[in-house]
Specification:
The protein has 365 residues and is an alpha+beta fold. The chain is 24% helix and 22% strand. The chain starts with a helix and ends with a helix.
Length: 365
Amino acid sequence: MKYLLIVIAVVVLAFGVLLLMTGNTGELKVEGEVDMKSPEVVPQTPESSLKTIYLAGGCFWGVEEYMDRVYGVVDSESGYANGKWENPSYEDLIYKNSGHAETVKITYDAAIVDLEVLLAHYFKIIDPTTLNRQGNDIGVQYRTGVYYESEADREIIEDFIRLEEAAYEDPILVEVVPLDGYYPAEDYHQDYLKKNPGGYCHIDLSKSVEVVIPMSKYPRPQDEVIKEKLSELSYNVTQLDATERAFTSGLYTNEARGIYVDIVTGEPLFTSFDKFESGSGWPSFVKPIAPEVLVEKSDTKLGYLRVEVRSRSGDSHLGHVFEDGPKDRGGLRYCINGAALEFVPLEEMVSRGYGYLMALFNEAE
């Protein structure tokens, strides 16, 4: 299927060249082509903050387009990596067993998005437990792999995969090895899905706009560190399941734009645009920043059933969720202790490592 599409693309390209040779110099426009990296979305990036990682995840058309949409990615390029010889062609992978993997070279602004976030996106679009296959594409060229150029990146990758293993029954088969040669693919492969919006793609590109928060970025400190770090009230709330008195938290009336994070780990939990005035005396939100960052548990301490809310990474007691929130916004009220939260203002998000969430505020405006 994919090879047939490539043949068609080559024929179309040849036809375009023929038109130019016969004197037709009219501009060829591709309907539906969208510039996903307008200056309003991703600002110019200084060379000093640019980093590169190489991801193999099956057909590179879809992986390239998906990663190009991730906030903080400056460029993505389809190519061939870690094979038997230099400068391979697409036909070498298919017919000559060159051993290369279809790979996407990702250049990203490390001041905005880091490797762990990119890996979390990557794991959303692959099946890491299959060998030499993704979607309908089968062959060694469609294997999954993360190819790095520094030992620091290797440690991050291995730590990330170690945490991911708990989510799978079968072993993770993603190849994690140093980059051993990378060569850009032919021009007709580059930006293929921008040129051909209805072209073959084995992944769901809409997932690129979903919030991704890697648990590995926000490890829980040792108990003694937590006790030393927190105030007595925050410690009692997060570690001993206490409840602060209503109307005592300064965050209850906070109207500034930004995010609310777990005071123990720094893991993002809520946004300012999901906060609302509930009249309860505690900071209230209609939803978390991403469903996976919260853990819900049954709570009968008061003699009746309530749903307790805890943070994923820190296992901090946060509060409870009730079904009396705004009906037009989902009907839920996450009633959260201010002592369990830290507020990070919008203007500080990039400097404090939350730049990868800035796109949320672009969407909300």
